[in-house]
Amino acid sequence: MRWNRKYIIVSYIRSSLWLVPFFAVLAYMVTNRLTFTIGRWFLQNGWLDEETAFLGLSMAGARALLETIVTLNLSFVVFTFGSLLVAIQVAGGQYTPRIIATTLLRNNAIRCTVGYFVFTMLFTLRVLSRMGDATVHQFNTFMAALFGLISIVVFLFLIDYAARLLRPVSIVYRVGESGIGVLEGVYPEPTRPAYPVETSGPEASPVRAVAHAGTSGIVLALDLAGLAAKARKADGVIEFVPQVDDFVAKEEPLFRLYGGAGGIDDSELQASVALGSERTLEQDPTFAFRILVDIAIKALSPAINDPTTAVLAIDQIHRLLRLVGQRHLSREEIRDEAGETRLIFRTPNWEDFVHLACTEIRHFGAGSVQIMRRMRSMLENLMHTLPPYRHPELSKQLEYLDRAIEGHYTLAEDRALARIADPQGLGGSVGVQAAVEAPNPGQRA
Predict the structure, then answer these.
(1) Containing H/E element for 126?
(2) Among 19, 179, 209, 311, which lies 20 to 30 A Cα-Cα from 35?
């Protein structure tokens, strides 16, 4: 199977809600045969009396119990899907639509609970359908009752879980956790001191270029290991022109080939690139930043006006920026065992991450004292914890922050208050009192 098709299939499986209920049907088939076999074995060995064992229900009582369990689980399934649709609408409108595929649809707790409801409903229906006029399968009825009782507990858990999941702090924390995993995968090496930039790639002109021949879309992922192996086998160099998360239209340049790599078939190269209609987190180190920034600026919009949620998003941005600052970001070449460059691809640099994290939030949040104080706390903290060669861009952002404060606040007291670094945004009376008593622009909390 081509690499890009395999990637698309795996990504689809991870974000599909219907697949877990499908596997629940298979689990029901296995469990149904197993429980009926165990029940017959108990009877044949005289280990139980079919009339009084387990629940000891009459035919009418067993039917009423089983019908109630079926009704309950059907209601649970309808309620869960209805609530999920509402949650998707609310989350997309209040936070950002980009969390739907990355957070809600990939949540295993929601998918597994729906699967369990489907399993219990099918199992109970099967027990009910196999009841004769005078025979109550006590063991299977007991198992159905046990599964039904567990389904009630699972439903109550789902209500509590969904309520916690949709809180702003839970959403931004999950995005932050996903972002950390991507950053550690894309940038596995610790940061190094600044050094003169070396030219990437061969000095010779490319032998030929390969244009994108398929449907236009966003670059989701790249088979780095596979491309490097192809280049090594051909004794050449492959350069991937766009960057992961870039939109590539038909006939736009996709690869430049150097040396022996010019003989690689175009279809093999095209198969190493996965394109789609929506960005994903797998190989895109900036997408987690993009989601968090979108949540922050949506919270700062006049329609929502919730700067505290924006502060929660900045908390996670702060966390990700610190990790980025501790990683070596110039990983734009893959070399073989002999040290020869085989694959060249572009990745975001430190300045790209800082601008993405700060620029839009500063523009939309310039009128909020909370945002100004939280952003200053983030920038000053990063300057204290990251190596000195990361500081110039952070210093620029502090300067832009001061200029934004000068342009939005007319009172000297407000300007001084907005210049206090506060990790909570507006976290207490101490910072407020200090600003009122000493409205010096250079004052620091």
Answers:
(1) helix 108-129
(2) 19
